[in-house]
Write a structure and sequence with these properties.
There is one protein chain. The protein is an alpha+beta fold. 60% of the residues lie in helices and 12% in strands. It has seven helices and five strands, in the order H-H-H-H-E-E-H-E-E-E-H-H. It has helices at 3-59, 80-96, 99-113, 116-133, 165-170, 208-216, 225-254, and strands spanning 142-147, 154-162, 177-183, 191-197, 202-203. Strands 4-3-2-1-5 form a five-stranded antiparallel sheet, with helices on one face. Helix 1 packs across helix 2. The protein starts with a helix and ends with a helix.
Length: 255
């Protein structure tokens, strides 16, 4: 066997290995791309289906057989319990909006208020739901940065409101403070309530939703910064134009 033949065999083997390696890399990239596309869709469908089944399991036993479509069909209809629950909550809200409904709610709250352990749980949950869902309620205003847990380290917080009540009175001589919520990663529903001097809070241009995504993803999902600046610039321009029109209307009326 000639040395030239041996070299050609080695080159052929190397080429074959390169082709196999390149093909495997492409297959891996295709798989990861498909996983990125189908993963969120599959998890969303799974969670939605689990929620529908959970609510159906709770609500369907209370639906009379006359109004339950499962009675007339050979298969179960998913989502009937969820629709019934939404309708029931809407009707309860409608009844509570009048005087008779508010009287019944007040009577029920007085009864619950006399139960030692239950009243604490109910009052806390009621305050949370009223804060989150009422139309004129205040949720988190802005996303911001503070130095935490030490100098040189920064953490994302959600600005809730200006510090009020006894805490504000006690800290009045120290500095003007704001109440912020410091979420944990990857579960932003848990965290710490902090009262921070306003001068130490750096407000961000991103929305609270984008900041929550950043926290949940542990920094992997970042909002597009130029896009944020553009949207904020458009909002500022619209507010300025609206303010100019409002100032011009009284002047025209006076003339």
């Amino acid at each position: 066997m000639k040395p030239s033949d041996f070299n050609q065999n080695r080159e052929g083997d190397a080429t074959g290995i390169g082709v196999k390696s390149g093909g495997f890399t492409k297959l891996r990239n295709y798989f990861l791309t498909g996983l990125v596309v189908t993963g969120p869709i599959g998890i969303t469908l799974y969670l939605s289906w689990s929620l529908i089944q959970l609510v159906d399991g709770w609500v369907k036993p209370f639906i009379p057989e006359v109004y339950n479509p499962d009675t007339y069909l050979s298969m179960e209809v998913p989502g009937v319990g969820l629709i019934a629950a939404l309708l029931a909550v809407t009707v309860i809200g409608f009844l509570t909006a009048n005087i008779a409904g508010r009287s019944l709610v007040s009577l029920g709250e007085n009864i619950v208020g006399r139960m030692p352990l239950v009243r604490n749980i109910y009052s806390a949950l009621k305050q949370i739901f009223e804060t989150v869902f009422q139309e004129n309620g205040q949720s988190f205003k802005k996303a911001a940065l503070i130095e935490y847990p030490r100098k040189g380290l920064w953490a994302i917080v959600f600005v809730a409101t200006d510090t009020k009540g006894e805490v504000a009175a006690r800290l009045e001589d120290e500095a003007e403070t704001v109440s912020v919520f410091l979420p944990t990663t990857p579960n932003p529903t848990s965290g710490f309530l902090l009262f921070v001097p306003r001068s130490e809070v750096i407000e961000l241009s991103m929305s609270v939703e984008d900041a929550a995504k950043l926290v949940i993803s542990a920094g992997l999902v970042n909002p597009e910064y130029p896009k944020i600046l553009k949207e904020n610039g458009e909002e500022v321009a619209q507010k300025a134009a609206k303010g100019g029109r409002e100032q011009a209307q009284p002047t025209e009326a006076a003339e």
